[in-house]
Amino acid sequence: MVIDIPFIWVAFKEIAKAIPLTLVLAIVPVVIGFFIGLVVTFIREYKVKGIYSIANGYVSFFRGTPAIMHIMLVYFGIPMLLDSIINYFNLPYETNKIPIVLFVLFALSLTAGAYLSEIIRSGISSVAKGQMEAAYSIGMSTPQAMGRILLPQALAKSIPNFTNLSVGFLHTTSIAFLVSQKELTGTANIVASSNLKFLESFIAAGLIYWGISIIMEGIYYLVEKRVQQYSKGGVA
């Protein structure tokens, strides 16, 4: 067996067309998941009555089960639930017209939210409790102390974990092909199947994943460096 080097470039150009969808599937869930994680963190930190147990169960379930299962549950379960509601109320809607990508984004956002909740919680735990006490002593309310004192420090300390999660979600997008989303891995499969050159296609896909990962890590590094300079009182 001989590797067809020229075909790697051919496959690379074809697979690269899936980069925009892959970035959407990688970035949007992390952004939405951040806000989900933030809310869940506060619920768990302050033990909000009535929903504290639900928040704990949510984090436990989504961290304790694979992302591929979350996509399958949402992809098959949500349409069934919506169809039941539509039929019950006799609404003029059809679930088969909902773009599949929305189900994938919804599932991955829930997954990201669970992981980000733990990342944010660990960041908050790393901040000395005296910081909040000092904020209260000068008359700050809890929301003010959280927004001005606690969260900025917690998020700054969590940047390395955010980096790992973001790169991990870039790789997780590959399972979207199972529900017919033609992201990088899915497109590589299609290119390989049409030419029976699987090795070359996946080398090309691997190079693209690697390149995007390096760019993402570089962006987070610059953000972390800027935050460190700011926290030390330096000028960026």
Question: What's this model, at a glance?
Answer:
The chain is mainly α. It contains 10 helices and no strands.
Helical residues, percent? over 70%
CATH 4th-level superfamily of one domain: MetI-like
Strand content: under 5%
- Form type: flat
Largest sheet: none
The tally of helices reads 10
Could you tell me the CATH topology label of one domain.
MetI-like fold
The overall pLDDT, averaged over residues, is 91
Uncertain ranges: none
Number of strands: 0
What structural class is derived from the secondary structure elements? mainly alpha
Secondary-structure element order, N to C: HHHHHHHHHH
CATH architecture assignment of one domain: Orthogonal Bundle
**CATH hierarchy class name of one domain:** Mainly Alpha
Rg from alpha-carbon coordinates: 22 Å
Instruction: Report how far the terminal alpha carbons are from each other.
Output: 53 Å
InterPro entries: AA_ABC_transptr_permease_3TM, ArtM/GltK/GlnP/TcyL/YhdX-like, MetI-like, MetI-like_sf
Membrane topology: Multi-pass membrane protein
Family: Belongs to the binding-protein-dependent transport system permease family.
GO molecular function: transmembrane transporter activity
Walk me through the structure.
The protein is mainly α and 236 residues long. It has a domain at 21-179: MetI-like (MetI-like fold, Orthogonal Bundle). The protein is 78% helix and 0% strand. The protein contains ten helices and no strands. Helix 2 (19-45) packs across helix 5 (100-125). The protein is flat. The termini are far apart. The model has no long low-confidence stretch (mean pLDDT 91).
